[in-house]
Each structure stands twice: as C-alpha cells, then as structure tokens.
Amino acid sequence: MNPTSAPRGAPRVGFVSLGCPKALVDSEQILTQLRAEGYAIAPDYADADLVVVNTCGFIDAAVAESLDAIGEALAESGRVVVTGCLGARDGGGFVRERHPKVLAVTGPHATHEVMSAVHAHLPRPHDPFADLVPPQGVKLTPRHYAYLKISEGCNHRCTFCIIPSMRGDLVSRPLAEVMAEAERLLRAGVRELLVISQDTSAYGVDVRHRTGFWQGRPVKTRMTALVRELDALAHAHGAWVRLHYVYPYPHVDEVIPLMRDDLAHGGLVPYLDVPFQHASPRILRLMKRPAAPEKVLDRVRAWRASKPQLALRSTFIVGFPGETDAEFAELLDFLAEAQLDRVGCFAYSPVAGAAANALPGAVPADVKELRRVRFMEAQARISAARLAARVGTTLDVLVDAHAHAGRGRSKRRIAVGRSHADAPEIDGVVRIEDGASLAPGSLVRVRIEAADDHDLAGRVAGEHERAS
Ligand code: SF4
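Above: the input record for the complex with iron/sulfur cluster. Below: its predicted structure, written as tokens.
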C-alpha cells in the first residue's frame, strides 16, 4: 500500500490482518473505508498514529498469535483498536483482560464499529479524498484474484467450532450487492473470484431464498442461482470463479453441471472445497456436522461421473475426542475410496469454549500426531498418483508470480501458476519452466511434463487472449 497517495499530513493508521480469508475480507473493507475517509495506511508501526489489529480466534495457536500481535502493536505504537473473531470472545473481555490498554475491541465484520473507534481516537481528516480509493476497494490479495464473501455467520453448531458464537447465525449478503462487488472486481482486472463464506451451500437460507434483482432480472438468493450469475459474469470478463466451503447438500448437485470444461475464456472452474472433517458416522454425529454422512461417497461418485475433471479439496480432523483406531481406519478407507485431489488435515485441538472439549475419550497428543502423519502420507500417495495421471495433458493455468528454479549455472527464472485444481495459498502449483515473460494474471495453456506429490511442471502450449 502506498501511504504517499493519501493527502499530505493525513493521519496514519497501521493495520495487522490475521486469520482466514473471511477475516481478510473484513480487513479489506476496513482499509477501504479508512482510505475513503482520507486516512493514510502506515507501512510500519513507527509511522502509525494508531494501529488496527484484526485477530483470529479459531485455534489456540491463532489466539496466541493474535495476542502477541496486539502486544507488539501496543508496545510499538501505544494506540491500538482490536477487531475480528478473538475480539468477540466474552464480549471483548478476553482481549481486555490480557491487554487492558487497547482503545477499543470489536468482533468480526464490524467495519462501522472499528471506524467509530478510529474516529474517537484519531479524528478523520477534514477533507476526505474519496476519489483516492479505487472502485473495487482496497485489496490485500494480488491484483489478479480476490475473495468474494457472500455471507457471514453460520447456522450450524459443530462441536469443535466457536465461529457461530463469534460471528453469529447466517446472514446472507443481498444478491445484487454480491454481484455488484464481483463486477467491480472484474472490471478492475481480477481474473479469479474465490467465493467464500462459512457455509456457501446455505446462501440465502436465512432470507428464505427471497428474490433479488440483478441487471433488471429477478434472481433468487440461492447458491445455484448466484453461481449461475457469477459464472456468466466472470466468463464475460475471461475470469474464473472458484467455490469454497461447500457442504454436500443435495442441491449442490445442480452446481456441478454449471462448471466449465473449457476454462480458456473463464467461468466456473470444476473445483469444490468441501470440508468433510471425518468419515465415521459416529464421529460426524459427535461433531454435529451438517449433511448426511452416509451419502457422501455416493455424492462424490455422482459428481465425478458428471464432471470428470472435478477437483475436490477437503479438510479433516483426526484425534477427535473418542476417535477409536477402527474409526481412524474408517477415515483412511474413505480417503482411499474418495480419491480427493487436495486435502488438509489437523490434529484435534481443543479450542476454548468449544462443546467438544466436554466429550469423553480425549486422544493422547502422540496418537493424534501419529494419525495425522499417517493420514497425510496416505493422501500424498493419492495426490502423487492423481497428479502423475496429468503428465502429458494440457491444462489452463492462471499465472500468479515468478520464481527462481535450479541452482548455480542451471538457475533460471520461471513462472508459477495454478490450474483449476489449485486454489491460492492452500493447494499446489504449476511451475511453468519457460514462463519468465508471462505477466501475473495471464491465462495460458501449459503442457504438463512432470509431477511430484503436490505440484506439476510444464511448458507453455499457448496463451489466451483476454476477454474485455
Ligand atoms: S459449519 Fe460448523 S465448522 Fe463451519 S462455521 Fe459452522 S459451526 Fe463452524
């Protein structure tokens, strides 16, 4: 962020953004509002008149990181406003007890409250330059991809999770608002929209799928309808749309046929991020997970039958309280059957305030870790086999950045990108050996020549013209 593009003498706000993509979107909204009101964003603590820390409270490690960040900001700057998930714990009491000198504490998704706190302690500049803010708002992601948050909160009560107590029940953003934001982002050059929420499949449930309007047409506030509109809009701009946090409810079946086989000109990519968390029906019931566990494998098979290139990503928890060796084995069997493309796995960590902590049968730490390692080894073999099958094929790849490969005399500049099977930050990459001249955001066809456990490598087979 360039602090010099704010008016001379503008008050300077430092910003620390921690946590998941949903928190990142909150940070972007606060930063956008700060810039819209004429505040400058300070590049470091020394330059900041006040610091906003957007915290995460999901697991103990995130809580510790957030508390450290607040402590550091207080030590360096002295004036700190705390927002985000950790701020919601005990109505702000959790943070205040540990850092009594903070100026204000708010929960997540609280741009208005954060701005009120900033105004109270660092008055807004007299003459805001609203035109200094780009129409798509301030983004923390690279210019060519952006997260699009479609709802806030969650109606489920998974026993390992405290998000609903921090972010509340599901509140869907109006369809027209989501679409307008998507259009602004695409017009600003974004080439991939990453749709996020706590539960993307539940979009519109809270408003009983009421009819919204987009470009003069009635459109239901419903996941399928939204995805259809986003696909058409993104395709018109030659950009991709990728869906995250999709629970395997029956209506998700309607989304699969909307995924594009040809991604050269954008549209909905054949990728679903479905957080299964476990496969044992008993453990899933203890977790109080949404969606019927018995049907999951059938659903995965049906999706693959209708969309063979579909890449499936999921996350799992091993060592949940009461998980037996047999139930862990059930999970490994599921993994072998489901043949997921991308998988993350956590050893169960008791989050303060989560209902699961009261369950009997805590799994010892060394057993949890052993199960996690065994799980990831099994998945690495599956991933390696699935990626090896792509060698010799040609994939559409979105270029993210440049990197150096090799050493000494063989050191060379390459491009690094992602196919439909790779979300940024969490999945693998495609290394493009002869991609040194490709600009980030380019969409190219790549002939795949090699694969390892998680990544692919290849050479350019053609570059696509950008639509609009
Ligand atoms: S679905 Fe479960 S894990 Fe996800 S946010 Fe809701 S309660 Fe938490």
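Notes for the reader.
The pocket of iron/sulfur cluster is lined by residues 154, 156-158, 161, 163-164, 198-199, 290 (CB under 6 Å).
The first strand starts at residue 12 and ends at 17.
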